[in-house]
Fold this protein.
Amino acid sequence: MWGAGSPCSSRVSLDGSIQNMGLYKLELELKRGRHLAVRDRGGSSDPYVKFKIAGKEVFRSKTIHKNLNPVWNERTTLVVDCLSEPLYIKVFDYDFGLLDDFMGSAHLHLESLEQQRTIPVNLELTDSQHPDQDLGSLELNVTLTPKHSPVEERRDSTQQSERRRKSLFWRGIVSIALIEGRDLTPMDPNGLSDPYVKFKLGHQKYRSKTVPKSLSPQWREQFDLHLSEETGGEVEITVWDRDTGRRDDFIGRCQLDLSTLTKEQTHHLQLPLEESRGLLVLLVTLTASAHVSISDLTITPLDDPLERKEIARRYSLLRSFSSLKDVGVVQVKVMRAEGLMAADVTGKSDPFCVLELNNDRLQTHTVYKNLNPEWNKVFTFNVKDIHSVLEVTVLDEDRDRSADFLGRVAIPLLQIRNGEQKSYVLKNKELSGPSKGVIYLEMDVIYNTVKAALRSVVPAEQKYMEEEPKVSKQLLQQNFNRVKRCIMVLISYGAYINSCFEWESTQRSITSFLLFVVGVWNFELYMLPLALLLLLLWNFFCSSNETSETTMEAMFEWDEDEDDKEDKESEHRGLLEKLYAIQDVFVSVQSALDEVASHAERVKNTVNWTVPFLSWLAVTALGAASALLYLVPLRYVVLVWGVNKFTKKLRNPFAINNNELLDFLSRVPSDVQVVQYRELKLDPGQSPSKRGRTNPS
C-alpha cells in the first residue's frame, strides 16, 4: 500500500471528529491544461501528465501533440490508505528517442479535501529551479470517498472487472480502406514527406505503411476496428512524416464520426486535415457485430443437437457462396488450469484468461488467490479465416499495475479436434519454451470448406494490436541461419545438377541426359503444375515430418537470459541519434531476413504437407491448372489473364492490390510458427494434476 511507514493511524475530519485510518477511493478527472510552457523549437509542446503518490507513479495521461492548451478529459480511480501523502502531478513534453522535457509540477494535499463530493481544482504549475516563470495551470475534478469495508472494495473490483469485460463485446465492425492522401504538407527539406497514418478507436490502434517521398501517397490498405459500448463513436486519425534518427513530424489530424454513417453501406469519404492542408480518401463500412459471445457451461450452443444441426446447415456446402466472409464458428470451453506460477508475494496468483482470435478478444472472470483456478466458461467466435490461430493467455490480475504474464498457448484452428478435452502445457511469451502450469480446453469448430478455400487467396486480416519490432542480436542471427539453411538446400540441388553435367557418375549422367532429351522433345506446359502435383503427392505418401520437426525445434531454441538482458538494455533512454539510425537499419535487415526465410519455409511446408488442408488445396489448384492448360491453348489463357489485369482498375478504381499466391503462402506456417504451435508433451511424473489436488487454494 502507498504511504507505508507514514503516521496515518488517525486524522481529524473537517467537522472535528476523529476518523481511524482506512482505505479511500480517489477519483481523478484530468480535464485540461491552460497556457502550458513551450518546449519545442516550433513554439509548441507535446504535453502529458504523470500522477505520483509516495514516489510511485499511479497514472499517466495520453500525449496531446502540438498543443499548449490540451484537453484530456481522462478519468482514473485510485485506492489510497494514507491521506498524509500528497498527490504529486508533473507535466512533461514528449520527445521521441530523447529525454522528455520537464514542463512544471504541482501537488495536492489529500487530507484537505472534503470527502464524498466532487471538487474542481485548479493547480498552478511551478519549477523549483525557475520559481518566477509562468508555466500555466491544470484543471482537475477530484472526488475522495472512504471505503468502509473489504466487502465494498471487492465489490468495486468486481464492478471494474465487469466494465472491462463489457468493453470486449463488439456491437459493430468498422471496416476502413485507406485509399490515398492528396496535397499533403511537405515536411522534409526536399519539399516532400514520408507520410503514414495512425487510426485510434478507444484502445484499438492501427498504423499504415510509410510511403516515401510523396505528397499524394497511395496506401490502399484495408483493416477492421471493433465498435463497442466503451469505445465511443469517433475514430481519431493523425498523419505523420517518418524521420529516421529523430522524432517524426506531425502533419495533421481529422476525426471520423461514426454516428453519422449509415450501417451496412460503404461510404466514400474525403476528410480534410484540420491543422494543415491536404485530405485523406477513405472507404468506410459499418457492419453488424460478428458472432462473438461468452456464456457458462450450462449454455453451450454446439452441445444442443438442434442448434448444432442448424449451425452445420448454415455452413453446409449448399451455402458455399452466401456470406463469403462468414467461414465458420468455433466454440472454446475454458475449463480450468493447474499448477500455475505464483505471481504474488503471498505465494498465490489471481489468474484470468484472455482468448484472442485475430482481432476478437474476450476474457474470463478472475479467480482470486488460486494456483488451480476453475473458470468453466464457453466462448464462441465467428471464423473469418480458417487459418487463424487461437491464442489463450493466462494472466495474473494486479489492482495497481498491469497484469503479470503466467503462460500462453497458440492453437491453429485446423488442428482442433472437435469435442476432445485436452490439456495444453503453457508456454512463455515467445511461445518458444515451456512456462509453468497446464490449461484444460475443449474446442469445436464448424466451417465451410469452399469458403475456407476461397478465403485462402485473399489478404489475411491484420492485427492492430501488435508490438513494435525491436532490435535483437539473437533474432538477427536466427533469421540469418534460416536464410542460410534455405540457400544451402538450393546450393545442394544445384551441385547435384552440376554433377550430372560434369559426369561425376556415368550412370547418373546418362539417365539425366535421356530424361532431358525426352522431356524437352515432348514438353507441354501442363507438365509444370503436374510435376508440382506429383511432388506433393510423393511427399504425402512417402515422406515423414519427424526428422524435420526435430531439426526445427533444435534450431529455434531461445536463450532466455540473453533475451532478458536485451529487454533491460532497451529500456535505457537518451541515446545518440546515430544509434537510432543504426537501429532502423537493423530492424529493416532483421525484418527482410525474416520475410525471405518465412516465404522459403512456407513453400517447403506446403510441399511437406505440414498443413494438410493447404496442401490439398494446392493439389486441387495444381490439378485444375494442369487440366486447364491441357484442354485450353496457352494463348487464350494468357489473353484472358492480360485482359483481367488491364481492366481491373477500370472496373474497380478503389481495388486493393493483392497477390493470390503470396496470400495463399501467408496461411502456411513458417518453421518458427510450426514450433510455436506444436503442443508440448506432458511428463507423467511432473503432472500438475497429481500434485495440484493436494494443494488447496
Remarks:
- The radius of gyration is 30 Å.
- Residues 577-607 form the longest helix (31 residues).
- The chain has a mean pLDDT of 80.
